[in-house]
Amino acid sequence: MVQATYHFPRGFLWGTATAAHQVEGNNTNNQWWKWEQDGHTQGTSGLACDWWGGRWREDFDRAAEGGQNAHRLSVEWSRIQPTPDTWDEDALERYRTMLRGLRERGMTPLVTLHHYTDPLWLVEMGAHSTGSGQGWEIEAVIPLFEKFARKTVEALKEYCTLWCTFNEPNGYALNGYVGGGLSGDFPPGKNDLKLAMQVQSNMIRAHAAAYRAIHQIQPEARVGIALHYRAFTPHYGWSPLDRFLTKNASMILNNIFPMAFSNGVIRSLLGTVQIPEAKGTQDYFGLNYYTRNRVTFDLRRPETMFTGAFFADDSDFSDKKFLINEPDGMFEGLKWIVRRFPNLPILVTENGFADAEDRVRPRYIAQHIHQMWRAVNFNWPVKGYFHWTLVDNFEWEQGWTLRFGLWALDEHTQKRTKRRSADLYAEICKENGLSSEMVEKYCPEVFDKLFPV
Ligand code: FCB
Fold first, then answer.
1. Exposed (0-12), middle (13-18) or buried (19+): which is 55, by Cβ within 10 Å?
2. pTM for the structure as a whole
3. What is the CA(289)–ligand 1 centre distance, in A?
């Protein structure tokens, strides 16, 4: 039997990713909390993983003991700025303590400023005025985000130089503004592609403003976003229509942000928008990769320009058929980035699988890390990997029905239970690589794929 190890470069970052609303608990002052109370989600976030109550300490211990040398977390805007005119210094102090906690455990922090949640006051802004829109639909949000970014970075700069302004701004806009979007119903639950484009262009402009502000405060900062990249294939390769829709889906979901960062322009079927200030405002490319969809013409989906996206029946499915295990898509995504931004460092800011029983996750992890290694082996500048996620947490509209953690969580008792994937991932982090022994031990079913003779 083959014996080998796929090693990664020295200094590679290995971590997990989390988001404030999904782990902190009691984030009562943002639009997601309200969305949950209004019955749009499967259960409510409640105490979540109780990080705000201090359980981040034990979870950071778990991460550090598992050999992780980095962690990606987000701060909650509605805690830091509870009203338009107030800053909560205690909340900022609490985040400083958490980041110090990471440093003390030898982990490099990557801080996301906006991960899906907005303060209630922000989303209500403009709602009562005359038809100009609300929240991220209106330009007034841009300087507010910049101010929040300044305040937060000023407070946390002692512990962090790696910043992510927005997590999946494309996911935020499409899930919130295009009915039956990628994964489901996000607030504000509107159905208007044009508005989705407007939200995205406001987010791009807010990113550009924050990018400059952060560099003013901290010249050595590295700033980017985490893009939700989805691999797509035409269902019928022979069909020009399916091929066109596939290209268009990728254009709308994947291309808008990278295009703005490379040319300062966004182009889509809905028109062209110039955002010159966005050009060159990315110090690394943050890639969130989960899965691949097949795309076909679907008359029942006018809201998505008749694009139907689905998974084939014989796929390697996650729980609730939410995702499928498609490791090649990871390589494809990395290649897609390198072609556009040949020298830009890349961080895999998220990658993971919903699998309460941990049946598929070990092979999902091994196969995706193998694809990432292929990219590294071409000298593509992949610098780190953040698995989604450390401990099961509140999964947005799916609530507690999808379990992405290396550790299982009983949200009623707060008890954590280790899954086998946590051990596999710990071995990978400690080895700085994936070995044939690990694959043999945790997912022998893919041994021949990963170590062919
Ligand atoms: C990503 C989100 C993250 C989590 C995972 C499963 O799209 O960024 O918060 O919900 O999906």
1. buried
2. 0.97
3. 10
